[in-house]
Design goal:
By secondary structure, the chain is mainly β. Helix content is 4%, strand content 56%.
């Protein structure tokens, strides 16, 4: 193995508590792409929005990383956070904050938040997030055009209001996301269809929710979430982009019985889409009865989801919904989660998975017959925590996104290449095993190591209704390693480092399987607190200067670094 020399060139400390900064431009963009309602935690600037209340130091306890699912990176890699020892004061007494950082590739991160109203019954907050890049990235494949500029900019404003009445808590959240990006994928020497024109995505998100305070009689909760969205162009630059609305509503009731941890309940949900044009709308209705019993450390939730779906046909299914945990000792437990059901794969959900999904047409919904995740969390050895896990998932109509070489448009004398990702469908069986170990036997150093091995089996994989021979689980890694470390030098200085490896990755291009380069992503950072209100930071990403694609034909940035400040007021 090659020797790695890392030089950490700047300092920063976040006031009050330490939060791991994003590890690369790719990771930073994912924080916003993953969900269209980023929070302050997603910005990785502070632990929570400041609150005017008396600080209370929590008793030290250990939490484990819950990231044990599949890795299907969109433009960027989703790195899990390690378990950590929580001994810091978990909030700030200041009302607002401003954070900004800038680096090469024109990478910029910014966040602003302020608590406008804070009293016993009412809470009104405002936040604004910015994330952008505008730099040339080199293609991995041998093509005439070696580089292309990858442009991306997200701006999102959010207003949140919470009212606590005697019997219930009432919340209203309103946000708007304005996103611009270009389809920078490899054209493989074809003329570009979208010619690096900036696509626009706008999402207006409104959510109203209520939840009763816990009682021994009857508890209730519910919400209605409305999202309106639009894009600028569709299959061609002069064609109208997809527009539409999503409505998601839920109502739930539970009745405690016996002890405080035992409940009998039911949740009902309705989700539907309304697209413009000739796209098929989607409708899903579910009822989920359940019973829970046990203690906070040992409990069982036994239930099922009764599902009714319409999307190019009508389907009714019943899926298990079970959660189990058994505390073997005071610090160790066994757990199992058994679930299943539909993945809607609506247009907005696919835009969260990757902005580079084709901007015309929708992706078929998939159905998981079973989704099992089980393991053991062990904390009996002083200074060490272990998580051994495994699972199995069987899914019908699973989608895999690829850059399809056959998807071209007649453009006069030559073919114009659609530099977008298209779905390949297949029935997937996915098993995984793995483990994580975390240690802080030397208090200033907290280290976690996580390994995961994936096993895939596919059947009836089709592209444009034509079956693919020797299919692979495209863009899903066969083996993953994640190592993360945080080192507290002084009360004012903390250093971080993390390494992520993903191997055995495949894609499909021009009628054949294409093996993708391994991901070797090494990152480091430093945080330094100047005073109670002001701190500075620096982070360096892809220190090994590795060349790899996130999606086939969509390369990651090379070595990049950024620095900035956080100001609390």
């Amino acid at each position: 193995m090659k020797k790695i020399y890392i030089v950490i060139a700047a300092l920063m400390l976040s006031a009050g508590s330490f939060a791991q900064t994003a590890d690369s431009l790719l990771k930073r963009q994912m924080e916003l792409e993953r969900d269209f309602n980023p929070t302050l935690l997603d910005a990785d600037k502070i632990n929570s929005l400041p609150a005017l209340r008396e600080p209370v130091v929590q008793k030290a306890n250990t939490n484990y990383s819950s990231w044990a699912g599949r890795t299907t990176p969109p433009l960027e890699i989703a790195l899990p956070r390690p378990g950590n020892i929580m001994t810091d004061i978990p909030f700030s007494t200041k009302k607002g904050y401003l954070s900004f950082s800038v680096g090469n590739y024109a990478n910029m991160d910014g966040a602003f938040g302020y608590r406008l109203v804070e009293n016993e019954k009412n809470n009104l907050t405002f936040s604004f997030l910015h994330n952008s890049t505008n730099g040339d990235i080199k293609y991995i494949q041998s093509v005439d055009a070696k580089t292309n500029k990858a442009y991306f900019m997200d701006n999102e404003g959010r207003l949140g209001y919470r009212h606590r009445a005697e019997a219930l808590t009432f919340n209203i959240d309103l946000s708007y996301l304005h996103s611009l990006f270009n389809y920078y994928g490899n054209r493989f020497d074809h003329p570009a269809l979208y010619e690096d024109e900036n696509q626009r995505l706008g999402v207006l998100d409104t959510k109203i929710s209520i939840a009763s305070h816990e009682s021994e009689l009857l508890n209730y909760r519910g919400y209605i979430n409305f999202r309106n969205f639009s894009t600028e162009f569709g299959e061609l630059l002069n064609s109208e982009g997809i527009k539409g609305n999503e409505v998601n509503a839920m109502v739930g009731f539970d009745k405690p019985f016996g002890d405080a941890e035992s409940k009998l309940g039911i949740d009902g949900k309705i989700f539907t889409t309304f697209y413009n044009g000739d796209l098929d709308n989607y409708y899903l209705m579910s009822a989920s009865p359940y019973i829970t019993f046990g203690t906070p450390n040992s409990y069982a939730r036994l239930g099922a989801d009764v599902l009714f779906q319409t999307a190019a046909g009508t389907r009714a299914r019943v899926a298990p919904n079970v959660k189990l945990q058994w505390a073997v000792t005071e610090h160790s437990s066994l757990y199992a989660n058994v679930h299943g059901g539909f993945s809607n794969n609506t247009f907005l959900e696919m835009m969260q998975e990757s902005r580079y999904i084709r901007p015309y047409g929708t992706v078929k919904p998939s159905y998981s017959i079973i989704d099992l995740d089980a393991g053991a969390k062990i904390g009996e050895v002083s200074g060490f925590r272990f998580d051994i896990f495994g699972g199995f998932k069987k899914t019908e109509d699973e989608h895999f996104l690829i850059l399809d070489g056959y998807d071209v448009v007649e453009g006069g004398e030559s073919d114009a290449h659609k530099e977008v990702l298209n779905p390949v469908y297949g029935d997937l069986s996915h098993a995984h095993i793995g483990g994580m170990i975390q240690t802080n036997i030397w208090a200033p150093l907290d280290v976690s190591v996580r390994l995961k091995k994936n096993f895939y089996s596919l059947d009836r994989v089709t592209l444009d209704e034509a079956e693919i021979n020797d299919p692979k689980a495209y863009n899903k890694p066969g083996f993953e390693v994640d190592i993360r470390a945080a080192f507290t030098l002084t009360d004012f200085l903390k250093l971080t480092a993390n390494y992520y490896f993903a191997g055995d990755r495949w894609s499909y291009y021009d009628g054949a399987n294409a093996q993708m380069d391994n991901i070797n992503d090494l990152n480091a950072g430093a945080l330094y607190q100047i005073n109670d209100a002001f701190s500075i930071h620096l982070r360096a990403n892809n220190l090994l200067s590795q060349k790899y694609d996130i999606w086939y034909g969509h390369p990651a940035q090379g070595i990049n670094a950024s620095g900035g400040f956080t100001f609390r007021f």
